[in-house]
Amino acid sequence: MSKIKGSGKGTRKETIIKAAAALFREKGYGAASMRDLAEKVGVEAASLYNHIRSKAEILQEICFGIANEFIVYMDEVENSQLTELEKVEKILRKHIQMMITRHERVYVTDHEWKHLPEPYYSNFHNQRRTYRKRFTAIIEQGIKKGEIKRIDAPTAVIILLQSVNGIESWHRSNHRISAAALEENMVSILIEGIKKN
Amino acid sequence: MSKIKGSGKGTRKETIIKAAAALFREKGYGAASMRDLAEKVGVEAASLYNHIRSKAEILQEICFGIANEFIVYMDEVENSQLTELEKVEKILRKHIQMMITRHERVYVTDHEWKHLPEPYYSNFHNQRRTYRKRFTAIIEQGIKKGEIKRIDAPTAVIILLQSVNGIESWHRSNHRISAAALEENMVSILIEGIKKN
DNA sequence: CCTACCGATCGGTAGG
DNA sequence: CCTACCGATCGGTAGG
Q: Directed axis angle between helix B12-27 and helix B103-112, to 10°?
């Protein structure tokens, strides 16, 4: 018989990180205090430190956890036999889906990673640059093959990745359209925007 | 003979706000301290309060100053005789140009307005919603006229406005392409993405 | 997991 | 514009 903690939804540490993701998204990392977090979790602030080492550690777990998921997916796509345009669409859809289903952590990762202490900051920064370069390379290859129109590839990457962040405002505004419809609309506009012809 | 303060570039208060915009962009509003700001300006922290009433007042001036500029431009475009698609392009170009030439204030406005104290927060929130609704209405009209393809207009607005924020990373990465080329690439991808046929 | 508390730092004020 | 300082709050620790 295994020892079940909390309400059966992972470890106590996971519960804390989940609450922290919501809190950091709402207030920003700097403005969110450990006392706020403790209240959300239902303990005294000091008790949090039995599960986590520091406030910064929570941010690290969020940022590197999300980043890793994107990197693993990028590996998959790169090794597939899809056309370059299909690869771009796949990656775009992954970002949209992550933003829809895990928006708190994704949002925090994207907006608060600057607050990571060294050496995590530099580490994250490098991972991010590498990821974008890999994405850029796919688009450049697609241009070379004539699948994608002659645009500046890094600019295209910026547009694709930034657009996805707008889903935040879809989330806040009571789901006027379904997640599936949102995804199709975004893909339609963006893939059409870079496709040749 | 008028009294010239600072290095002839506006009032002392403007100097402070300009330095604050750079600081808030770099560290975030919450993590930027008045002592940091004072050091940048070259005075003691207490001296700042001879020119500004509070830290929050600086954020207000930045956010409402930028928002107002966009609203004034929206008025102009709405009253013009352009096609709806041309109106969308005009507004998109305005956002791109503002982000290129005034990126510190625009970035801070977009990322830190949540930290405005009430009633400024609600006020800003309303202005923002109204602006987006006006932009959405232009796109909906363009769809009705057959200039723009049948997409969800609010989703299109999200994509157009969010994409522009990516210019931040262009700014950081040593201007690989010119501002003009960046603008043309963004317009090409995004307007092509929403245009009919 | 709690009580009690630490040194540091925060935004801001008094008074000159 | 400065010195001196305020009360509040911060992240985190000691000790149980």
A: 60
- Residue B88's contacts (CB-CB under 8 Å, 6 or more residues apart) are B135, B138, B139, B142, B148, B160, B191, B194
Query: Which two tokens mark A120?
Result: 């995590």
- The CA–CA distances, whole Å, from B11 to A47, B5, B6, B15, B100 equal 50, 6, 7, 7, 24
The pair of structure tokens assigned to B37 is: 């700001």
Distance A167 CA to C10 C1' (A): 34
What is the pTM for the complete model shown?
0.91
In whole angstroms, give the CA distance from residue B19 to residue B24: 9
The reply to whether B54 has its C-beta less than 7 Å from any atom of strand C is: yes
Q: Does the C-beta of A7 come within 7 A of strand C?
A: no
State the alpha helices, DSSP H only, in B79-178: 84-101, 103-112, 120-144, 153-165, 167-172
- Count the Cβ atoms, other than its own, within 10 Å of residue A117: 12
**pLDDT tens per residue, range B23-70:** 999 999 999 999 999 999 999 999 999 999 999 999 999 999 999 999
How distant is the alpha carbon of residue B139 from its chain centre?
20
Tokens of A29: 């990392």
